[in-house]
Specification:
By secondary structure, the protein is α+β, with helices and mostly antiparallel strands. The protein has seven helices and 14 strands. The structure holds zinc ion (ZN) (3 copies).
């Protein structure tokens, strides 16, 4: 495995060593009573008073490795480096069949705490420029581990989409002296047509230029650039847990599969000679959660000349999602169980 930089788009790409197939496990190593895990958890948090309800482990098939230096080097005009970083699995519950929208909010709040604690901890490592959390859920999302989990990655580079966001946010701020996402939140609240949910501190919208049908963003209605600093300081986990649960419950009436990714500020403590956007990040960047549902088996999105095609207008998606129940449909829970991927 190595990381290569596309000299034209300047995006870093992970190049693997071959096909990435499902992990064949005779039984789930993350279920209670299984002793097959080689290492103790990196972090363990109680859930409803039960010790070790949430556990964080190194990923069994990591994209990044924690040891060593990146050894960034040139190959002619090309750039490449070792995949130094961290890749962790956050086991969200001991219950193999528990989907997030079915859980009480008191069980989702400690999960958010685990996300924040792990991000904050890995940001102490000055090699890592970007640390984030994501969830791939459902057959179509490339979910490899069946037990309910989130994943965390720490990388020595900033992913391309985050770079776009950082640069655009900074440019907007320089022009208007305001944060673009604060402005978006305000306008969406006024217009209302793309609002799916609203609480005291958080807003859920289908974004104006949604890339896929039913795309959702969860954003704070106040300004803050860093998810982990914000959460660990204000401790409003329950409210965010509630809005996240309701959003995923609504979405579960539309699709079983989605990608969820947290966009938080990069590691401003990282060894970085890249000046510029580091200095104003706290003012111009605004953390948020993006949810990209997978509603079609073979997505038309991004297939037409590299332009996203979204078949459902976000206004229609928002109106529909808003009216959907905030409890998930009675799904057969074993749906994603060790299916032989035939
Ligand atoms: Zn399990
Ligand atoms: Zn803002
Ligand atoms: Zn984003």
């Amino acid at each position: 495995m190595e990381i290569r930089k596309d000299p034209i788009t300047r995006s870093w790409v992970l190049i693997g060593d071959g096909e990435y197939s499902d992990i064949a496990e005779p039984s789930c190593p993350y279920c209670p009573g299984q002793e097959s895990l080689p290492l103790p958890p990196i972090l363990s948090l109680p859930l409803d008073g039960h010790h070790g309800g949430i556990r964080v482990f190194p990923h069994p098939r990591p994209l990044y490795r924690i040891e060593g230096e990146t050894e960034r080097r040139a190959e002619g005009l090309y750039d490449k480096m070792r995949p130094v970083g961290a890749h962790e699995v956050i086991i969200e519950t001991p219950d193999h069949h528990s989907q997030l929208p079915m859980r009480p909010e008191t069980e989702i709040a400690p999960l958010l705490e685990a996300w924040a604690l792990r991000i904050a901890d890995l940001k102490k490592d000055r090699r890592f420029k970007y640390v984030t959390v994501f969830r791939n859920v459902g057959e179509l999302s490339g979910q490899h581990i069946r037990h309910p989990h989130s994943e965390l990655t720490a990388a020595t580079f900033i992913p391309r989409r985050i770079l776009y966001e950082l640069r655009a946010s900074q440019e907007y701020f320089q022009m208007k002296e305001r944060c673009v996402l604060c402005d978006i939140a305000r306008q969406e609240e006024l217009q209302g047509v793309r609002v799916v949910d609203l609480s005291r501190r958080y807003l859920v919208i289908c974004p104006f230029a949604s890339r896929v049908p039913y795309e959702l963003w969860i954003l704070p209605r106040y300004h803050n650039s860093s998810f982990e600093t914000d959460l660990l300081r204000h401790r409003e986990h329950l409210e965010l847990a509630g809005i996240l649960r309701r959003t995923l419950a609504r979405l579960s009436h539309v699709t079983d599969s989605y990608h969820l990714v947290l966009h938080t500020s990069p590691n401003t403590q990282a060894r970085a000679d890249i000046a510029g956007y580091w200095t104003t990040i706290e003012e111009d960047y605004h953390w948020h959660i993006e949810i990209l549902p997978i509603t079609e088996k073979r997505s038309k999105s991004y297939s037409i000349k590299e332009v996203y095609y979204c078949s459902v207008p976000p206004e229609t998606a928002a109106a529909r999602l808003k009216d959907l129940p905030t409890i998930p449909p009675a799904l057969p829970q074993a749906k994603f169980e060790f299916q032989t991927s035939g």
